[in-house]
Design brief:
Layout (H helix, E strand, L loop, with lengths): L8 E2 L5 E2 L17 E8 L10 H17 L3 E7 L3 E8 L1 H15 L7 E5 L4 H15 L14 H5 L11 H5 L6 H10 L4 H12 L2 H5 L3
Antiparallel strand pairs: 1-2, 3-5, 3-6, 4-5
Length: 214
Amino acid sequence: MAPPGRCARYSRSGSIDLQGTTAMARALPIVRAGAWYHVVNRGISQSLLFPTAGAKDGFILALGEIAYGSAVEVHAYCAMESHYHVLARGEEPELRKAFSQLDAACCVTAESARLRRMAVGRHLLHVTRYIHRNPVEAGLARRPSEWSWSSYRGYLDPLDGPLWLRSSTVLGWLGSIGSRQLYRRLVESPYSTSHRSRYLDVLFDLDRDQRSGR
């Protein structure tokens, strides 16, 4: 698998390409309805979900199978050592089924995935900002682009991410011209204390998890 700190290359099918081969593109399913959800899961009793680069690569591969094999759109993701974040859209029963299968495949020490329903709007930009800044806030990277196991690079350049990543909807809230550059500026600007706290409290309710050590 790809070594730590290096980005695995993506084939045109959106799967991780480690031997330099390119697979035939696969068609994404049409998701006709569904709400937006911030999906989070952590290891049981503070266990590590993805302690190695290979484990994080495996998560991204499994996430791609969800994107191709179920009525679930994947709009952003980040695999950390102890947990993962995904911004997804779909019907809740379909999402729960898909992430249950994902956890069984590559997160055997995980709890049940938690789905937090998000309202539709420009604030989804900040949901993805939170997701993509996770490695920086955790002290694992100096910049979001240094972390190989998130969708951030795919937001800046679609050729640096899998084809199953649907970044256009979120980027669309920044306009049709220069949206990727504007998004880079948004994500790479450090949080102010009050700004970060507001999104943790209102959007994610993760501060309670952090205080309890989950």
